[in-house]
């Protein structure tokens, strides 16, 4: 299983990708809702692996940043398939 994890994250460790200091100085202006079990799991990851040094909002922002980098071409392709121009 570790082999698949390394493939997804490259040669960097999980912590160096997602549990790093963040440029956001505070939480964003929007609230999001996640399943209770996901919130509990995310909070534990931040507390245990991250040592409590990174806020949950920064961890989530890092996850989303990686997701968009990894899937940007697919997202754009699917967007244009479903949003064809009129002319």
TrEMBL record:
<dbReference type="Pfam" id="PF11888">
    <property type="entry name" value="DUF3408"/>
</dbReference>
<dbReference type="InterPro" id="IPR021823">
    <property type="entry name" value="DUF3408"/>
</dbReference>
<protein>
    <submittedName>
        <fullName>DUF3408 domain-containing protein</fullName>
    </submittedName>
</protein>
